[in-house]
TrEMBL record:
<protein>
    <recommendedName>
        <fullName>isochorismate synthase</fullName>
        <ecNumber>5.4.4.2</ecNumber>
    </recommendedName>
</protein>
<keyword id="KW-0413">Isomerase</keyword>
<feature type="compositionally biased region" description="Basic and acidic residues">
    <location>
        <begin position="144"/>
        <end position="158"/>
    </location>
</feature>
<dbReference type="GO" id="GO:0008909">
    <property type="term" value="F:isochorismate synthase activity"/>
</dbReference>
<dbReference type="InterPro" id="IPR004561">
    <property type="entry name" value="IsoChor_synthase"/>
</dbReference>
<dbReference type="Pfam" id="PF00425">
    <property type="entry name" value="Chorismate_bind"/>
</dbReference>
<dbReference type="InterPro" id="IPR005801">
    <property type="entry name" value="ADC_synthase"/>
</dbReference>
<comment type="similarity">
    <text>Belongs to the isochorismate synthase family.</text>
</comment>
<feature type="domain" description="Chorismate-utilising enzyme C-terminal">
    <location>
        <begin position="180"/>
        <end position="438"/>
    </location>
</feature>
<dbReference type="InterPro" id="IPR015890">
    <property type="entry name" value="Chorismate_C"/>
</dbReference>
<feature type="region of interest" description="Disordered">
    <location>
        <begin position="144"/>
        <end position="179"/>
    </location>
</feature>
Length: 452
């Protein structure tokens, strides 16, 4: 494997693709080599990456521009025969939330930014499947890559079907990083700063450490998350394996897109304001209407939508904000506003990612004061939680989601993350309950019936 940092010298890139006989997602992911990558998004192809032909790594406040420069260098010498646009080679990865992330537990193996160029990439789109083999290095031989491609196609086509799925491993213990009394104190302090005019909004998060009765089967988890949350962005990113500790895996099914770029068309979402789902259709509709009418949630949401539009305005003469509406997911309902823009000039998707992150949906306003409040209040390192995860292609296009409803699994342990927006009339106990609700998509994949 060729490891590329931001000062990488020029290398050769060769990529070849051929059709497959539509293998199962779960079988391919189970068979994949570490580091594994998964990306699946509404109206996009589903991709599983196996191994790493190249890795891009950066840290600090320049991590976005450093990864952009390294990606452009990597793709500059590309010899690519994709067969279909969906199977084109892509980089997959993400960033830390804070520029000065400390990489404390469970983030020891996650730098400020890390992107993988998979050695083997399997893509599903419109009922078809493709395998792509990538190679990076000096004097890469295309004939050798094509021979590898033939072998990979035969191997993947021979994978057996999904078979029986492994259920949740069960939770044997859980430890909150934030006690309820400390949460009340933190929220009350934030509300006081908002009422004084020092802040307009801040997002505070919690982490939940759980011990499992067994190792989590991520192929099964991500398959079930895809069925339960088809409107969400599923992702899996892993660092290089280490001999000294179990392989960590950061995964989730997030409802929030940060940005997508195709040509000069930009799409993004404002997602803020949350309530639960009802036990009956009538109760569900009542909760949705209450959410839509709630002044606290509407104020929190509008701050996010207005700020995203402002952040896009330097790039686009036309920014269109849709009407606020309710987006229903399996366990929660959110206020959602779609936002689109047409760029004035060609841009790289990472330029937009850098401009938008962190949105007020995960950080706050004003940004620097909100980030300082988060640092002062949260007793853990966010790592990659609530940060951009996604993909980049050779044209500089891509899609990034905000890494919510997520967890880091390592062996028989996992750490879950969830947060809420705090505004002037926030109630600490109500916000606590919302955090517990947001744990559910991932916690449901860990707990067995009867777990406390």
């Amino acid at each position: 494997m060729e490891s590329l940092r931001t000062d990488a010298a020029e290398t050769d890139l060769v990529s070849r693709s051929v059709p497959l006989s539509t293998p199962s997602f779960r079988a391919v992911l189970r068979d994949a080599d570490a580091p594994r990558t998964v990306w699946s998004a509404p109206e996009e192809a589903t991709v599983v990456g196996s191994g790493a032909a190249a890795t891009l790594i950066a840290d600090g406040s320049s991590r976005f521009s450093s990864i952009r420069e390294a990606a452009e260098s990597l793709f500059a010498s590309g010899d690519v025969h994709a067969g279909t646009e969906a199977a084109r080679p892509r980089l997959f990865g993400g960033f830390a939330f804070h520029a000065d992330s400390t990489s404390g537990p469970p983030w020891e193996d996650f730098p400020g930014a890390r992107f993988v160029f998979p050695r083997v990439q399997v893509t599903w789109t419109d009922g078809d499947a493709w395998v792509t083999v990538n190679a990076v290095g000096r004097d890469v031989d295309p004939d050798t890559v094509e021979s590898r491609l033939d072998r990979e196609r035969e191997r993947i086509d021979s994978l057996r079907g999904p078979g029986s799925t492994a259920g949740p491993p069960g939770v044997t213990d859980r430890r909150r990083t934030t006690a309820r009394a400390d949460w009340r104190t933190g929220v009350e302090a934030a509300v006081s700063r908002i009422k004084s005019g020092d802040l307009r909004k801040v997002v505070l998060a919690q982490a939940l450490d759980v011990d499992l009765a067994g190792t989590l089967s991520l192929p099964d988890v991500l398959t079930r998350l895809g069925r339960a949350y088809p409107e969400c962005y599923r992702f899996l990113v892993e660092p290089e394996p280490s001999e000294s500790r179990p392989q960590p895996s950061f995964f989730g099914a997030t409802p929030e897109r940060l940005v997508s770029l195709r040509g000069r068309t930009v799409e993004t979402d404002a997602l803020a304001g949350t309530t639960g789902r009802g036990e009956t259709p009538a109760e569900d509709e009542w909760l949705a209407q209450e959410l839509a009418r709630d002044e606290k949630n509407a104020h929190e949401h509008d701050l996010v939508a207005e700020t995203i539009a402002e952040q896009l305005s330097p790039f686009a003469g036309t920014v269109s904000t849709g009407s606020r509406r309710v987006k229903r997911l399996a366990t929660v309902q959110h206020l959602w506003t779609p936002i689109t823009a047409t760029l004035d000039r060609d841009e790289h998707v990472l330029s937009l990612v850098e401009a938008l992150h962190p949105t007020p949906a995960v950080g706050g306003l004003p940004p620097e004061r909100a980030l300082a409040t988060i640092r002062e209040t949260e007793p853990f390192d966010r790592g990659w939680y609530a940060a951009p995860v996604g993909w980049i292609d050779a044209a500089g296009y891509g899609t990034f989601a905000v890494a919510l409803r997520s967890a880091v699994a390592r062996g028989d342990t996992a750490t879950l993350f969830a947060g809420v927006g705090i505004v002037a009339d926030s109630d600490p106990d109500r916000e606590w309950d919302e955090v517990q609700l947001k744990y559910r998509p991932i916690l449901d994949e860990l707990e067995r019936e009867g777990d406390d």
